[in-house]
Amino acid sequence: MSTTVLAPPRDTGGPPAPADRVGRLRRKVLDNLTAYGFLCAALVVFALFSWYPIVRGVLLSFQQVNFITDPEWVGWQNFQTLFADPLFGIAWRNTLLFTGLALVIGFAIPFAVAVVLNELRHAKPYFRIVVYLPVMLPPVVVAILWKWFYDPGPGLFNSALRLFGLPELSWLDDTGTSMISLVIVATWASMGSATLIYLAALATIPGELYEAAELDGANVWQRLRHVTIPQTRFVLLVMMLMQIVATMQVFTEPYIMTGGGPEDSTVTLLLLLYRYAFVYNDFGTASALSLLLFVVLGAFSALYLRLTRTRS
Amino acid sequence: MTVRKERPNRTLLSPWTLEKRSGRIGYWLVFGVVFLLFTAAFVTPLVWMLLGAMKSPAELAQMPPTILPESPDVGAYREAWDFMELAGYFRNTVVVAAGAWLVQLAVCVPAAYALSKLRPVLGKWVLGLMLATLMLPASALLVPTYLTITDVPLLDVNLINSPAAIWLPAAANAFNIYLLKRFFDQIPTELLDAARIDGAGNVTTLVRIVLPLSRPILAVVSIFAVVAAWKDFIWPLLVLQDPGIQTLSVALQRYEEFTPINLMIAGLVLASIPMVVAFLIFQRQILAGLTAGGIKG
């Protein structure tokens, strides 16, 4: 097994071939030692901050820790605590609502925008720069900024609504609009990357396909449906998976803008996890929640990795 | 790879349609609408922020808001700088971001080189175990990694309130190793063999031959590293509890409760400037890095 890895020996032998097996073996051992020398820093950080925490996270889900005595095994008790917490169901519902709305708004809009931008022949750099600017802002800045925009009194949005004589909204202060307000911020802040990735994908569609479709009498909508979308299907699928994984872990916006309120309408899974671990110091139950999150999101991530790796 | 090919590739609409009179009118109409929408959606908020920082708290509370500040006062920027002690938080953020960048390169480049060119026994397994960590949502590791940081095994140290608490976990980045290895794989082995015959050791080969050829991918990895460190919030919030070493994001969030609104907005502007300037300078590299991600092969 080990020899097959080394089988294509690029050691051209050097000037006089050593020929004897002892020499070659020594060479092989030395080569491997050098290679692991290059790898050792990575192995240490992965072991300490990735592999070990993974194992520890699973174990913690079934333990109670207090940092004074040794961790105590409690079986499924952490999960029972979680299931008994009314916020657990609420957090799932809220998170799924956020992810769902983010898919409806944040998935469709960047694609539509990219399709339109791709047709424009002027000011392209302007559009590209402007749509990507919010991506460069720290999420905390975006969250605090939008909290100010959402201010029902002198805030930018209600001022604009009043200007046009439209009814005002309570934005973050109303259970009916709080979540969608967060989705709008998150979409504004992140749609730049999706838009530019779609633009890059659209640029690779061969023009002949559109020509052929047009000769066959397909109108714009038919060309969009039968050429553009099938040609970008892979990128669309990958981006959708990425977005699901990212939006289900939403934290910064609710943490800063609403703190989970009003009336728990924006308590997301990560906010609940944060509370269990760092407010109640119940690391066991927090780990149980992490484990559940991992099981759900791991499936999406695995699919994403599989798709991108087999493709390349 | 990038969209730079300005050869008018045929798109959804044919050039012929656009040349017709009706097509031209329609085009400019759509162009105008898109231009206005983009400006309204992405430029207005930023301009509103810039102007807001120059208004007094009383003016900011006015009910039909003023558009331009009545008596523009740039002093708020100075005042915010002092009030929130931004100089220190900027320094902390630079230390965190620069350190995260250096540590990531120092750890991931040699590892990717070893996996790509030295191919040791079990190398494939090591790579597989690293890539497997990509499947984990970052938040699933929050609690166990936090507990590990409070008491690092073997070393027996508590890294809470040390920038290393950010640098080291950031270095365990499988995506970097994947990108770098994939790039190194394309460097012809003959080149390295030639160097070896000339008596170059592995370190020399890596530094003199591989790295100069890998500038594009090093730029991508560097940008990812710095931008991620600058933007990150939840992890620094957890591990940098001492206000003296917090990053800008964590500090802004803490100051938000008790800072006058005009100073807060000025602080937001100041915190945004470095990344926006960096984006305008490194635009091409940043946008190229975007597509280098997982999407394109």
TrEMBL record, chain A:
It comes from Actinophytocola xinjiangensis. It comes from the Bacteria. It is found in: Cell membrane. SUPFAM superfamilies: MetI-like. This is ABC transporter permease. Gene3D superfamilies: MetI-like. Keywords: Cell membrane, Membrane, Transmembrane, Transmembrane helix, Transport. The keyword rRNA processing does not apply. It is a multi-pass membrane protein. Residues 92-304 form the ABC transmembrane type-1 domain. GO terms for cellular component: plasma membrane. InterPro entries: ABC_transporter_permease, MetI-like, MetI-like_sf. The chain crosses the membrane at residues 33-54, 96-117, 129-149, 179-201, 234-252, 283-305. Belongs to the binding-protein-dependent transport system permease family. It holds the Pfam family BPD_transp_1. GO terms for biological process: transmembrane transport.
Automatic annotation (TrEMBL), chain B:
It holds the Pfam family BPD_transp_1. GO terms for biological process: transmembrane transport. Belongs to the binding-protein-dependent transport system permease family. The lineage of its organism: Bacteria, Bacillati, Actinomycetota, Actinomycetes, Pseudonocardiales. Its main location: membrane. The chain crosses the membrane at residues 25-51, 94-113, 125-147, 159-180, 217-238, 258-282. The keyword Cell membrane applies. Residues 90-281 form the ABC transmembrane type-1 domain. Keywords: Cell membrane, Membrane, Transmembrane, Transmembrane helix, Transport. InterPro entries: MetI-like, MetI-like_sf. It comes from the Bacteria. This is ABC transporter permease. It is found in: Cell membrane. GO terms for cellular component: plasma membrane. It is a multi-pass membrane protein. The keyword Cell membrane applies. It comes from Actinophytocola xinjiangensis.
